[in-house]
Amino acid sequence: MYKIQPDDRKVVEEFRRNPIGRHSPQLQRVLNLFRGAPMEDKYVLITRIPHKEWVLGQMTGKRGEPIRMTNQVFHNIEEAEWYVFRQRWKLHTGENLEE
Predict the structure, then answer these.
(1) How far is CA 83 from the centre of its chain?
(2) Hey, is 3 helix, strand or coil?
(3) DSSP per-residue string spanning 25-78
């Protein structure tokens, strides 16, 4: 399985500028790692109002159990995706990214 390398730090700004759409192969490798991680405690975005409001949730990792919803609400999908990226980056690297 791919692991974050020191050189992967340069894709952080690429994702921040363009969280949705086509990505470089290096960023796509990082995203594939994040998205393929175990389901337990994995952050997910739930659409509450289509194209207007998203809520942060966490998977339980147990089949059939509902997603644990948080109080974190987003009104911009790019900000929501950036938040989830930062949470997943910290999980995989231990490093906090600036907002």
Answers:
(1) 7
(2) coil
(3) HHHHHHHHHHHTS-STT-EEEEEEETTTEEEEEE--SSTTPPPEEEEEEES-HH
Taking only the tens place, the pLDDT of each residue in 5-61 is 999 999 999 999 999 999 999 999 999 999 999 999 999 999 999 999 999 999 999
End-to-end CA distance of the chain: 28
At 51-86, the pLDDT tens digits run: 999 999 999 999 999 999 999 999 999 999 999 999
Give the sheet arrangement for strand 53-58, strand by strand. Answer: 43-49, 53-58, 68-74
Q: Is 56 exposed, middle or buried (0-12, 13-18, 19+ CB in 10 A)?
A: buried
Six-digit token string for 32: 């594939």
What is Dmax (Cα atoms) for the chain?
A: 38
